[in-house]
């Protein structure tokens, strides 16, 4: 694909990256390195490989059919849309709340703001809402690419600078991951849950591809759309590895543990970069990390109402036809999402670590269901034959589903036995 064509359709893949590079990277990947050194590198790589098909099916389906994955679920059966709606409602509020709390923590630390976490969350979500109302998809599409590039460059440079760094090691802090320790297994489950992102994001990606096609006035070729998606996917995988390496190189063995408090965690995260790069990098890293989390907050806030509208359309077609201005439905979903997220933050916002663990674990537990649904849609009879994934992707998909189911069994075993 010519570079000018790639630049023209660039957007949905980076929005995927914007949704992915957030809690899973800044929080979970960094904690994985700080707690277990390089022990979970294989888990990170395996998760990115085995989840790839299910994320790729989003743009594949959208570009091939002109519809989003929710429309595809409906062609499989109303039960599939109902199942997706149930999974979404079970996760959307805590997902948005967890991301917002991390964002608030960064903003509080970087700009030395001492405001109640719920109040600051209200401000952040209202500002995000205003940005979506004013700029809609096009503004989000244009801004996200610069934010991701800034964070990527600072992280890559910091990782190389951290190699061979002098740190005071505490022997008793040199822990290793072990399958016989429940806390380690629980962390790994949560780590995989959002690595590189919850599988829900595949549906968002299909919706963003349709929005991008409307913006540029034509539907890109399948090959071009998949290339654009892979740029974002591979980039997020490299960044996740970078954050894990930073945690391992700078914090592992020092005895310092990441705080469950959002503001304190943010201070530790920024200090990790400045330890590697020097104090001169404070504002560069602070702005990059904060901008990344703000973009993730906005991206998620944009995504849920977009996917809930077709869910409502297919589950309640009669009511859908009666709504003259369909945009009103988006505003309603935005309001529901913001209010529900703020209620969770008000009652549990002080413990960022617990909130993130619950959200990531929930995403992992529903992963087999969503993964199977995506595979079912792109191999259904209504899918254009030339766009049906080949034997390699289908095989990798079943390996991924088996992987998710196996880890879910392990998790449930540790919980109940």
Please, could you describe this protein's structure?
By secondary structure, this protein is mostly helical. It has one domain: Amino acid/polyamine transporter I (Up-down Bundle). Helix content is 79%, strand content 0%. The chain contains 16 helices and no strands. The longest helix is centred in the middle third of the chain and has 46 residues. The termini are far apart. The model has no long low-confidence stretch (mean pLDDT 83).
Shape: globular
| Class computed from helices, strands and strand pairing | mainly alpha
Number of separate helices: 16
The number of E-state strands comes to 0
* Order of secondary-structure elements: HHHHHHHHHHHHHHHH
- Tally the structural domains: 1
Name the poorly predicted regions: none
Quote the distance from N terminus to C terminus: 53 Å
The Rg value, from CA coordinates, equals 21 Å
CATH fold assignment: Amino acid/polyamine transporter I
* Largest sheet: number of strands, sense, barrel closure: none
Mean pLDDT value: 83
Q: Tell me roughly what share of residues is in helical segments.
A: over 70%
